[in-house]
Structure formats: C-alpha cells, structure tokens
Amino acid sequence: xxxxxxxxxxxxxxxxxxxxxxxxxxxxxxxxxxxxxxxxxxxxxxxxxxxxxxxxxxxxxxxxxxxxxxxxxxxxxxxxxxxxxxxxxxxxxxxxxxxxxxxxxxxxxxxxxx
Length: 114
Hints:
By secondary structure, the protein is mainly beta. The chain is 4% helix and 52% strand. The protein is built from 1 helix and 8 strands; from the N terminus they run E-E-E-E-E-E-E-E-H. The strands form 2 sheets. Strands 1, 4, 5, 7 and 8 form a 5-stranded mixed sheet that branches. Strands 2-3-6 form a 3-stranded antiparallel sheet. The longest helix is centred in the last third of the chain and has 5 residues, at 105-109. The protein is globular and about 40 Å long. It starts with a strand and ends in a 5-residue tail after the last helix. Mean pLDDT is 84; it is low at 100-107 and 109-114.
C-alpha cells in the first residue's frame, strides 16, 4: 500500500452511527472498524460542503504503534447539514429528517453493537 487509499463503506463495519446531544449541540457519533488485517485508520479528514459533511479515512499498513483499524468521531451537525457521507464513493451514512429521501443510514445502523 504505497499510495494513499481511502476506506469505503464496504471496508468498514460500523458499530455506531447515532445522533447525540452534548450541551445543546447536535453531534453525529460514528464508530467503525476497518475490516482488513494489518490495516489501520491512519488519518480522518472531514470536508464540509454547503449541505453535507464528507468523511475520508485514509488507511495505512499497521506499522505505526498506537494505531488500529478502529476509529471514532463526533461530527457537529448544524441545521443546514442534510447528510453525512463516507469514502470516495460518498455512501450516505446519515440524512436529516428534513431531507425528503429515505434514511440510508439504516443499512449501516443495523450493525450497531451499542
């Protein structure tokens, strides 16, 4: 893996995708595990667009102490954000109730271990 490779939704087992409220701030809690042996979540980038937040998790070989395939993040989701997507494929992990489309998050949330 000499070049940067980003995790896609098929590479990750999502343990949690849930809205939480912290001191009046709405956050999206995402916890996942990259399902490739000897690969770690190296870096997480959030790209904010007009109505979306896009998550890119770069993967690396497991040669760095203290790194693992497990990642967890809390993303602020103000009212103007209508969806959160993952990977270069932009798989929708979460969509607001105001968004007229179905909530694709359910396909990932059913992997919730609590």
